[in-house]
């Protein structure tokens, strides 16, 4: 199977281990083969003289990193993923392979929210037209691919505060089903500092109907973080940012019932659970 993927000489493997397992590099997301989770799929030994294999899930290229002398695909699984067997298409430079992996079902809880401002639930024709445009723009940003030698996967929580909304919750606004909660909410008073969860490049900033003032940070190779409902944006598209760097201030712009930071993590176009990227906090799951 995947053993033949890359032929690694022992010396080359040792060189790769020395290069890639330097401190501070590790910190991969935790695997969770469920909709909204992340699958870590071994693609064989990494050798210094063989190029990094490239892999796709459907038409979306996925992140591949070297870890412990082997290649590992880090695959975002969209909330709509159907449980069962899925396949990655892998190009080694020599051959094209199919690598199977399984996705288990996961039941996310429901949440019913009452909004007094129904203008954000029952949209006017002009708001609807605006939202449709924004949905298309956000969709294309989430699928953005920037080839990079390194992808910073060692995330920090981007704001101080209590976690008030988990990823994946199936939401109902005034009784009407809406998209599931595709991020992680942190209660933070208006004006709290929002930091980059990992190093990267600012991909875009905008002011959206639902998400409010939003920053996208591209960490390379399909890993993107999103910071929403901001009061203020202090970075510009194209600007490199370091992990923990000040991006802006939190607020409640867009559709928000109170001041908070909504933080999303996108991997190969799929919204995934940000909690998988930060060290365990002792919260029960
Ligand atoms: Zn949220």
Primary descriptors:
ten-stranded antiparallel β-sheet, Glucose Permease (Domain IIA), six-stranded antiparallel β-sheet, disordered N terminus, 39% strand, binds zinc ion, single chain, Immunoglobulin-like, 285 residues, mainly beta, globular, 2 domains
Describe this structure in words.
This protein is mainly beta and 285 residues long. It folds into two domains: 102 residues, Immunoglobulin-like (Sandwich); 168 residues, Glucose Permease (Domain IIA) (Distorted Sandwich), CATH 2.70.70. It has two helices and 19 strands. The strands form three sheets. Strands 8, 11, 12, 13, 14, 15, 16, 17, 18 and 19 form a ten-stranded antiparallel β-sheet that branches. A hairpin with a 2-residue loop joins strand 18 and strand 19. The longest helix is centred in the middle third of the chain and has 18 residues. It is globular. The N terminus is likely disordered. The protein binds zinc ion (ZN). Zinc ion binds next to loops.
